[in-house]
Amino acid sequence: MLLTVAQLIFVPAMVKMVIDFNKVGDALVVVMMVAITMLHWWSEGWIAIILALIYLLYTAFIALQGVKRFLQRGFTNMAEISIDVGLIYIFIGGLWFFAFIANIDTGFSSLITWLTAIHFHYSACLLAISIGLFGRIHKSRWYNAVVVILLAGPLLVVLGITFSTILEIVSVTLYIVAIYSLFFLALKTKLPRGQGVLLRISYGSLCITILWSFMYAFGHVIGNAYVGIPEMLKFHGVINGVFFGGMGVLAWAIFIPESKHQEFHFPVSQIRGKLRERKDPYPGLVDALSDFVETAKLPHAIPHFYEETNQYRLQASVQWKVWFKPFALIYQGLSRFMQQLNLPFSSKQIEMTGMIVKVDEQQDGRLAPRAWIRKIDKQTTFVAIYSKHTTGETTYMNIALPLPFSTMIGVLYLYEDNGDLHLTSNHAGDAGIYLAINRFLMRLPLHEHFVITAEDETTLTAVHKMRIFGVSFLQIDYQITRK
Q1: What is the pLDDT along the chain (483 residues), one digit of tens a residue?
Q2: Whole-model pTM?
Q3: Cβ–Cβ < 8 Å for 438, 273
Q4: What is the rounded CA–CA span in Å between residue 246 and residue 306?
Q5: 3-state SS string over 311-352?
């Protein structure tokens, strides 16, 4: 009954709050509900397998909506990411449910397989969507940390049960901290009266039932089961079903907060794959650096380099961080094939030769695009198509790096500091690194920062740093000299 009420009421209700279905989607929901209901009469045999398969297809459809939502934004807006993950998690619950009905050997007992299906319906899907809706109201760094732990929690608990009791108890401990933090944030957040009471009951019930999970995991570690599965079902399961699930769904049914995510509206290069058309040469990366930044405080050599780039020679030293080197070594085979982002593994200083050529504006779709093609020993290292766009009163450098079936977009904000020029993707507004796939534009968890310094009238240095999820993984040092 705990699983059935989630399948027929809780999950469809929460999903309907965040997804606008078309007629096909609505029909699929009805068919799913009929199939789940019929399973209570035909729980074995090939008919049961077909009915369970219908539910699995429904969960796959919901997960696909989560993927589509994510591809429209990427790694931005933690509240919406939480909803996306919740929609994807339901498919994992559907897989475990199908495995139970079809008697597929998962390596666990049928009871554990069944309980895992329940786990991914409540602790994964329903909780992730609920905290996502809560994040549309509450915003803080603390909330972001809580969401990361709670989203990773269901998988960590399953991995702990499968491979390590130590991992299991550590994951449950982190989960407890996150659950109590979520309850505290709900207490201090202003909510409509009725909704606030119900939501706090929902999150508060987790603060009680999670203690049973901890005792269950701790019993595994010391080999003395204080709490067994029957006790977990009677207390942990029933309270979560009635109070967390029931009160939570009722709370959000009172008022569904609107998403605060704003769509991306800046121009994106339409070029995908290799840049085939190379026309007349272009002198520089930009027509005038003053379009982006006040150049009066910059040494003359810096704007001259950007406006007359072909007059300069580049020496580069690529430094991969130690932790990232295994990934860089694996990636190198792919980058050589693509002839894009094809950086050497060695940190030895080496010359980058290059040229700047015009790109067809109609083909690219942006203003006055030009491609800077850089090579190392006849191997293409970068193909970057430079353009610009203005949002409000800020003009950004809009750089496209064509990839197979997609394009990576770097939107950089420029500013001057103590005579140095800074270009960064880590800034408010449009700044960021994005991936364009078909009609989707998603923000990546990458940040880059350039610092250009003029040593004298003919020599510059540049430092290019890159981070992933805030952790540094690459630095390129350039020595730039006028020919």
Answers
A1: 888 999 999 999 999 999 988 888 889 999 999 999 999 888 788 899 999 999 999 999 999 999 999 999 999 999 999 999 999 999 999 999 999 999 998 888 888 888 889 889 998 899 999 999 999 999 899 999 999 999 987 777 777 766 766 777 777 788 889 999 999 999 999 988 889 999 999 999 998 888 776 776 666 666 666 666 676 677 777 888 889 999 999 999 999 999 988 889 999 999 998 887 666 888 999 999 999 999 999 999 999 999 999 999 999 999 999 999 999 888 888 888 888 889 998 899 999 998 999 999 999 999 999 999 999 988 899 999 999 999 999 999 999 999 999 999 999 999 999 999 999 999 999 999 999 998 899 999 999 999 999 999 999 999 999 999 999 999 999 999 999
A2: 0.87
A3: no
A4: 61
A5: HEEEEEEEEECHHHHHHHHHHHHHHHHHCCCCCCCCCCCEEE
> Tokens 């810096």, residue?
302
DSSP 428: S
Q: Backbone phi, then psi, for 343, in 5-degree steps?
A: -90, 145
Q: How many Å apart are CA 301 and CA 291, to the nearest integer?
A: 16
User: Torsion over CA of 83, 84, 86 and 90, rounded to 10 degrees?
Assistant: 140
